[in-house]
Amino acid sequence: MNKLYLFAIVSAVLSAVITPLARKCAIKLNIMDVPKDNRRVHTKPIPLLGGIAIYISFIVTLFLKSGGLTNSEIGLILGATIIVIGGLIDDKFNMKPWCKLLFQLAATLVLMVYGIKIVLITNPFSSLYQFVNIGIMSIPLTLVWVIGVTNALNLIDGLDGLAAGIALISSITIFIIAMLNGRNEAAILTIILAGSIAGFLPYNFNPASIFMGDAGAQLLGFLLASISIEGAVKSAAAFSIAVPILALGIPIYDTLFAVIRRKINGKPIMQADRGHLHHRLLDMGLTQKQAVIIMYVISAILGSFSVVAMEINAQRSYFLLIIVMIILILIAWKVGFFKRRE
Questions:
Q1: Upper half-sphere CA count for residue 212 (Cβ side, 13 Å)
Q2: For residue 117, which of 81, 163, 79 has the smallest C-alpha distance?
Q3: In a domain, 327, yes or no
Q4: Which domain holds residue 228?
Q5: Cα separation, 123 vs 48, whole angstroms
Q6: How many domains does the chain have?
Q7: What is residue 5's DSSP assignment?
Q8: Which of 123, 129, 186, 196 could form a disulfide with 58 if both were Cys (CB 3.0 to 4.6 A apart)?
């Protein structure tokens, strides 16, 4: 356990040291987030490339651990590198959505080649046959899960410190779940990731001096989705769907509600709007800090539910997930979350 904490400290220090250097580099290369529409909350250009600090500190600390890299860790590093390259190109040149998707697809395929994919899921309908082998469906399910979470983290990156803080809470949640299940590799990966985010967050919290950019937001979503396949499990074999969905609740539900909202209002699913949860909280008169802290609290509550889901049987965990989703949908409908917002 002490060694795990050491990993967190090392990655946090590295991230804290590298972030100011990344900021200077972003300014020099003119990789800036310039506010161009009413969806953006900041009023002046902010340097990007904060994601590079998270990426470097995560990779370096991972190499420092004893015992060498496992096959899945190599796949994770290669996939993360592809995501970061695509994100950097997007931060500089603003790629089309389908171009981003190509990088995400390539990164996820690399993961699967190196053995990180959903093969078994817990069976909510039978206590006798606890696991279901999904066979060839493991490929599309893994693609949907990893690419979906990658984009979900990117979509909520709309306020200072929001995506980074929620990713930190999710990392800690999955770390706890991995420790409870004796999943040491997932525990190491999440504690290193948590440290990398923690070192960056002080620079990113309101008022932010640097953003993580698409490279960083997509990286965090990609890593969390990938690690959750390894760590958010009922055993060494099966993926418990309810657990990571709750652990990564805020970005997943916000993205799901955005898709429903745009569909109801006849807008293209990929068309951005000002209807995300953080926009709604700001419209209620909250400050950036207040809105972000509220979303931190919600994320922590959902993370707690995921730990509970981990400790109960499959049937009850799925029931818990359904109850939480129904409550959130009712609340979203009540506050007009699905109404059209430009």
A1: 38
A2: 79
A3: no
A4: 2-240
A5: 43
A6: 1
A7: H
A8: 196
